[in-house]
Amino acid sequence: MIESFLISFFGDLDEEMRKANIKEDIITYAKKAEIYILLVTFAMGFAGFILGTLISLIFFKTILLIIPIPIAVFFSILGFLIGIIFFRSLPSIKASERKKKIDSVIYFVVTYMAALASSGTNPLTLFELLSKYKEFSEIQKDAEEIYNLVASMGVSLPVALHYKAQYSPSRNWREVLEGIRSILIEGGSLDDFLYRKARQFAEEYKRGLIEYSNTMQVLLEVYITLVVVGVIFVIVLTTLMGAITAATEYIYFIQIFSSVVILPLATIMFVFILKSINPSEE
Question: Residue limits of the Type II secretion system protein GspF domain (predicted)?
Fold first, then answer.
């Protein structure tokens, strides 16, 4: 029953799964998701039952099943919903990660391809050489698959390029693949096309770095003003309040909580945000 529901619920994820390079069909993906979702559901239900039991013991000095059972049911439903939402979103998340990895290296890849093309390297050899460079991340995987489709399965290069372009999460890489395909079919100068694309991506890469630098400055100002200065202000203010009140325990707790919990958590979030918006981050 659950499996049928998941297959129906995930039925339209085929394209996103291809973009995410998840090499599974919907049925296999749904079956694997079912196992993890049930594990999360049971784990959350068990945790809810333990929590309800502790609440019952603390407040009523005995175990009243009317408390842990509803909490366990609520946690189980919550775990099930979290599980299906996660697996529903997972292909999109992975596709977005692939797009970022591709766009972060595409300028260097296309420049390398242009240099090879200008020296007379044929298009298939371009992808064979690209497939040997792990530094090119997701593009290396695409190049390896394109080369294998042609060399091992006998697919024509234009068809292989169209297949990978169709399911690429990156618009830039899709344009490169479709451009090469168009030149192979209709004719044209491959190295001129690649050098033109390299210049375009270089400009986009520079703009991305400038935007990142500006955004980082704004975030840094916000972090210093709200977090660092804010924590210092709280400590100073509570110290002054401690001099005129007797609630020293609460003041000490606020100071410790601000410096030991809030400041580190805010710093971790700040670093995470910077890494997530970094155009060069792989």
Answer: 111-237
Q: Which two tokens stand for residue 161?
A: 């390029």
Q: Are 57 and 63 in contact (CB under 8 A)?
A: yes
For 225, other C-beta atoms within 10 Å of its C-beta total: 10
Among 53-62, 107-116, 178-187, the range scoring the smallest mean pLDDT is 53-62
Distance CA 29, CA 32 (A): 5
Residue 110 has a CB neighbour count (10 Å cut-off) of 24
The Cα 12–Cα 9 span in angstroms is: 8
Is residue 87 a contact partner of residue 33, using CB atoms and an 8 Å limit? yes
CA distance 62 to 146: 66
E-only strand ranges, the chain: none
